[in-house]
Fold this sequence. Notes:
23% of the residues lie in helices and 26% in strands. By secondary structure, it is of the alpha+beta class. It folds into 2 domains: 352 residues; 111 residues, no CATH class. Strand 9 and strand 10 form a beta hairpin. It is globular. One of its GO terms (biological process) is double-strand break repair.
Amino acid sequence: MLTRLEVDGFKNLMGLEVDFGAFTCIAGENGTGKSNVFDAIQFLSLLADKSLLDAAQEVRGVHGERLGDPRDLFWNGYNSDKRRIRFAAEMIVPLRVEDDFGREARPTISYLRYELVLGYAPPTGIEKIGRLTLLAENLRHISLGEAPKRLGFPHSATKFRAAVLRGRRGGAAFISTSVEDGQQIIRIHQDGGGRGQPKPAAAFRAPATAVSTVTSNDEPTILAARREMQSWRRLALEPSALRTSDSYVDPRTMDAKGRHLPGTLFRIAHRDGDLDPERVYTRVANRLADLSGLRVRGLSVDQDDVREQLSVRLHEASGLTLPARSLSEGTLRFLALCVLLEDPSVTGLICMEEPENGIHPGNLDAMVSLVEDLAVDPMDTPGDENPLRQVIVNTHSPAIVQLVDPEDLLFADTAMTLSPDGTMAHALRLRPLAETWRARRGPTTPVSRADILPYLTTPPGAQLRLETA
């Protein structure tokens, strides 16, 4: 669970500091840079799994394409001589993970702060484009005594906080950076403190982060941090992927675009050898029936043993059976989220852009309720019935804003900010609503309902309003 993100120098994120709860809705007009927050989270996740070069190639460029030019990641990256990106992420990591060899690992402590600084090395020789460089990397614990003031979102101390925060740690970091002979040296420190000396490496030559290199249970806390960051996903459901049938040998886990929806639903319905899959199909169908205009009688996964394919079938009240390829884009996206809701194995962070896309205005309430229900209930104990799953959405829809709990809202705009080269530039700003938990934490200036009234202005007769918490 990502509880806090700090970014400086990445695209138009300069000096950004934001706290997250179980569910967060970032709202603002197009062009403010809301998606850059998701890019930053995705980049950190990629860096926990891939090399610096490969991670950079998978993040959106300045025009939305994935071009692999590392300069696209830096503020004013094509004109600046001194390029630096600084990240900090505070996270709650899983209490048990598996290493790359299937062995269990348990972190020494489950509340951590990860810091990363990246630079840019200009091209040399026949190279035309430079490369990212690792300048500093640190991973340290956050003490359990600090947790009550750091976890500002409403939650149960006995049911939630006590269940997800475990362990003790002294003053030593798990990953540290020091300067020796003018060179940054990164060291990995083992949890026990008595099994050998820290492992040093020169930062500038590193092709990847230290976190991404930990694959075994010898460093369980670093491994848990890596697994947590790997679980941060950006959901970009595509109708073409959601309409596709699965072969019997395809994965049974839905990917970020929605591929393998039939196989995923089939796996969930038969989880633990359950001989009554209809219970799962009925729950998904009942949730899908929340969409007005859709008369749902049932749902099933068709097993074609001749073609060896799995396909989703929707059964209407009229008796008509519709394959997934016949469903509307909005219905397919809603169905995919209903399936995720039933899957306790899906944990970590889900980022989703504009959940209102393809949804009739009359069904926005059902969509908002669904994405909110995907997130863990921090007033209860996490488990199979309440997976430790976090959701962040962004939107430009005033209707979505008025349906979301004000405590979960952040408003995006831009403000003139001092840039790394000393000039003034437009940077993304995320501000909470006044009198909500983020506003009480400070120091960001909150917005009032009067401030956002122009944004909430809708055509006459829409009868939309922002309720007081």
